[in-house]
Amino acid sequence: xxxxxxxxxxxxxxxxxxxxxxxxxxxxxxxxxxxxxxxxxxxxxxxxxxxxxxxxxxxxxxxxxxxxxxxx
Length: 72
Known about the structure:
The chain is built from 5 helices and no strands. It has helices spanning 5-12, 15-22, 26-42, 44-52, 54-71.
């Protein structure tokens, strides 16, 4: 498993979003990955999901981050 937050974030995305985010500048990818990590750390609901399925928790956090980004 990669320790690079951007690679981990990209892996958590569905294929369509992975391609879109992968085409963004590295600095923007890093900002999204940082937001994703904060989401994973701060949401208790994701902690519960993480115990059951870490990939599902990561995917849900990634979905939330992208949803917030498109709402701006």
